[in-house]
Amino acid sequence: MRVSSGVPGFDDLVEGGLLDQRLYVVSGPPGSGKTTYCSQFITQGAKEGDNCLYVTMHETKSELSKDMAGYDFGFDRALQSDAVQFLNLVTENGKRTITQFGTDGGLTNRLVAFIEQNDVDRAVIDSTMLLQHFFADMDDEITGFLSALKQTDATILLISEMTDPTSYSDEHYLAHGVVFFHNFLDASGMTRGIQVIKMRGTAIDCDIREISFSDQGLRVFPDRKVQG
After folding, report:
1. Element at 20 (helix H, strand E)
2. Which of 65, 187, 213, 218 is the most exposed place for a label (fewest CB within 10 A)?
């Protein structure tokens, strides 16, 4: 089964949508569109009646809502609805919430238990860089964390700060798919693009496609290829 990303044009690149119950990494430099993409993914889930979860380690619910306030695709309404749960792991409320789901195994077991017990269909985790604050040994624990997430029944997007599409990290190897955002200067000015680097079970070509931002959010132009 495939689920819609909620991003116009993107699903055309991946045979109609993301395969459900899989883990995807969304990478790219700051300001390239990662959070907008993930917000549209959550909003689409809320519209379809999915149980959604947005996990962050650096923004409050209010801050995230304000970040997306310039768009009209409905993320603010989704965030306030019963369809979306928001979990900030560094606030006292967030810590109390996650602690209810066990004291053994640290963040990995607690978050997986939260996802399973709340029957979460879609989740966004922001981000890999901030996970280091929860793991004593990032290199060892990230593998177990990602492997555990892959065993849940949720379709999960993990935001990564990786800025080099040719440099693979543990999360890229372990994920079912990798979506990379490009944001670079060329002779004509700033060029933005999106590239599906990896997508198990899906025919992809790895070419960079043009993207644009409007008050409706992010849009992908599957027929417009750009050079990175």
Report:
1. none
2. 187
**pLDDT at site 53:** 97
Lookup: tokens for 146: 């990602």
User: Domain count of the chain?
Assistant: 1
Q: In a 10 Å sphere around its CB, with 0-12 CB exposed, 13-18 middle and 19+ buried, how is residue 92 labelled?
A: exposed
The domain of 28 spans 2-226
Given a cut of 70, whether residue 48 has pLDDT beyond it is yes
Cβ 118 vs Cβ 87: under 8 Å: no
- In what helix (H) or strand (E) does residue 214 lie, and over which residues does it extend? strand 208-214
Neighbours of 8 (CB within 10 A): 18
Q: Which residue has the higher pLDDT, 90 or 53?
A: 53
pLDDT, residue 54, reads: 96
What average pLDDT does the structure give for the chain? 88
**CB neighbours (10 Å) of residue 88?**
22
Q: What is the CATH number of the domain that holds 72?
A: 3.40.50.300
pLDDT of residue 84: 95
Measured in residues, the chain has a length of 228
Q: What is the mean pLDDT of residues 22-30?
A: 93
- For 92, phi then psi, to 5°, come to -65, -40
CA 134, CA 38: separation in Å to the nearest integer?
Answer: 22
Backbone angles phi, psi at 197, to 5 degrees: -80, -30
